[in-house]
Design goal:
The chain is an alpha/beta fold. The chain has helices at residues 15-25, 74-99, 145-155; strands at residues 2-9, 38-47, 51-59, 64-71, 142-143, 159-164, 170-175, 181-185. The strands form 2 sheets. Strands 1-2-3-4 form a 4-stranded mixed β-sheet. Strands 5-6-7-8 form a 4-stranded mixed β-sheet, with helices on one face. 17% of the residues are buried. Residues 82-130 form a coiled coil.
Amino acid sequence: MLQFNIKTDNVEATPAVRDYIEKKIGKIERYFPEGASATAMVNLKAINHSQTKVEVTIPMKNLTLRGEESHIELYAAIDLIVSKLERQIRKYKTKVNRKFRDRDGIGMAFAAAENELRSQNEEAEDEDDLTIVRTKQFDLKPMDEEEAVLQMNMLGHDFFVFTDAESNGTNIVYKRKDGSYGLIETSSS
């Protein structure tokens, strides 16, 4: 079941807007297995009094769905977000199923998704010239480099930290300036 956490910034989330968000974004629940639950974190922001920016993040056990869209019309931005999230889910399921077609059960990794809150926001105190303004905590999931790159791209980030499924080590994939990808493998000495 999909829960909603709607935050606003210079935009009023009327009951009609909330209902529209829950109805439209709730449609992606059909991709979830029965009994799975997740929390959709929705942020609405006004940009220069002419556009509305909608950000949606849905953290789950094996996947984090994320999208953001800006549009003059709030409802149109919500529709665009739903399309983007559905494309991400289809892309992920296709890639996972193709990769694990011959392995029993692993191809259903997405179907086993359930709610897992990954991030906590905390403010840190100033420390000389170094100021940490946000702290996130998340579980490192075992996966291979290809899955990590896919997850990084779906989140829209430039790097992604993960546990390598084969070596059980903590690794980092990152996007290079030339558009290719890099891998940092860690080791304990």
